[in-house]
Amino acid sequence: FYFYSASEDFNEEMLRGKRVIVTGASSGIGEQMAYHLARMEAHLLLTARTEARVQKVMERCLELGAASARYISGSMDSPTLPEQLLREAENTWGGLDMLILNHIGQSSVRFFDGDVEHVRQLMEINFISYVAMTTAALPMLKESEGSIVVVSSVAGRTGGPFIAPYSATKFALDGFFSSLRQELIMDKVNVSITLCILGYINTESAVRAVSHIIRSAPAPKDECALEIIRGAALRQREVLYPPLSIRATLLGRSIAPELLDSIVRSNFHRPNTTA
Ligand SMILES: NC(=O)C1=CN([C@@H]2O[C@H](COP(=O)(O)OP(=O)(O)OC[C@H]3O[C@@H](n4cnc5c(N)ncnc54)[C@H](OP(=O)(O)O)[C@@H]3O)[C@@H](O)[C@H]2O)C=CC1
Ligand SMILES: C[C@H](CCC(=O)O)[C@H]1CC[C@H]2[C@@H]3C(=O)C[C@@H]4C[C@H](O)CC[C@]4(C)[C@H]3CC[C@]12C
After folding, report:
1. From the CA of 8, how far away is ligand 2's center (Å)?
2. Fewer Cβ close by (within 10 Å): the C or N end of the chain?
3. Is residue 119 part of a domain?
4. What pLDDT does 275 receive?
5. Cα–Cα distance between 188 and 182 in angstroms, integer?
6. Which Gene Ontology MF annotations are present (predicted)?
7. In a domain, 5, yes or no
């Protein structure tokens, strides 16, 4: 079905003039999404903690042709940041068309060490703030019949080693947004939710975190970012990237979970426990 289904036509014109918030936009996949959206002449509101970095990305977006670009720096463990971002969208644009939730907090790749406080903090940044941003954005998204994009991971569908706190936050996203999608459909609210299930991507932070303990090669972040935007513009339920390896993993998980677990384990060397 995947190979023979008519691939819907994506056209970059779909994003021209669209009002888009991108979180985690100062580096990695978020930065690349901002650049693609700028080339497509969208209006952009970018956010991340490091002002110098997110300002630099905003300036590059203006050079690339963004219809407009602004930023607000702040941490997503702040309870006031979601309201501040959505108020900025309301005051500047009078509405919102697409909310791209992409940021993640710092998390080490190592055996779980019993640090429950770290799990709590990471849940706050990687999950609760996504709920808060969505709650604040929904009134405008209902008005515009817009889209919510949730950037998740194959680690939010299968349990890999050394990333228990991070994986828990990604599983939480799947549960919450899959349920919310059902409610929006039942309520005949035309707001799409696109969940992005990503494999290993060559961002600086991911490569720094795992290149010494993982056998597989990462996929390109710019292509990943474009696939996310394409899937969101087509209002797809899910984006799987890299498409074949993620499909194989998810198929393996449902057909032979123990075999998949051993394959994933074989993909990792044991991390240095002091890391
Ligand atoms: N790279 C990969 O292999 C994979 C990535 N993904 C997902 O893709 C998304 C992006 O990952 P990637 O690009 O690699 O990550 P990066 O580390 O490159 O980017 C993370 C972004 O989040 C921001 N950020 C970090 N902490 C906070 C905070 N407390 N509040 C607000 N913003 C914060 C960072 O900016 P700053 O530090 O300035 O705040 C940065 O802009 C994530 O959701 C991740 O789970 C999924 C699977 C694989
Ligand atoms: C090695 C994993 C792929 C296994 C498979 O294909 O079955 C990677 C898939 C998801 C990656 C993690 C992820 O979701 C992003 C995190 C980003 C952080 O900055 C650190 C690295 C990650 C934990 C990253 C590590 C590789 C994966 C588990």
Report:
1. 29
2. N
3. yes
4. 47
5. 10
6. 11-beta-hydroxysteroid dehydrogenase (NADP+) activity; 7-beta-hydroxysteroid dehydrogenase (NADP+) activity; steroid binding
7. no
Torsions phi, psi of 170, nearest 5? -75, -35
Q: Domain containing 238 — which CATH number?
A: 3.40.50.720
Q: Could you read off the pLDDT of 140-163 as tens digits, one per residue? A: 999 999 999 999 999 999 988 999
Q: Please work out whether the CB of residue 48 comes within 6 Å of at least one atom of ligand 1.
A: yes
pLDDT of residue 7: 56
Which domain range does residue 241 map to? 12-266
Q: Is the pLDDT of residue 38 over 90?
A: yes
| In-domain check, residue 161 | yes
Mean pLDDT (the chain, rounded)? 95
Per-residue b or e along 27-56, where b marks 16 or more CB atoms closer than 10 Å to that residue's CB: bbbbbbbbbbbbebbbbbbbbbbeeebbee
Mean pLDDT of 102-115: 96
- Contact yes or no for 225/32 (Cβ under 8 A): yes
- Ligand 2: which of 154, 204, 241 to mutate, most ligand atoms within 8 Å of CB? 154
Share of the chain above pLDDT 70, in %: 96
HSE (CB half, 13 Å, CA atoms) of 259?
A: 9
Distance 144 CA to ligand 2 centre (A): 34
Angstrom distance (rounded) from CA 89 to CA 48: 16
Q: How far is the CA of 24 from the centre of ligand 2 (A)?
A: 17
pLDDT value of residue 133: 98
Give the β-pairing of 43-48 and 238-241: unpaired
Q: Determine, yes or no, domain membership for 4.
A: no
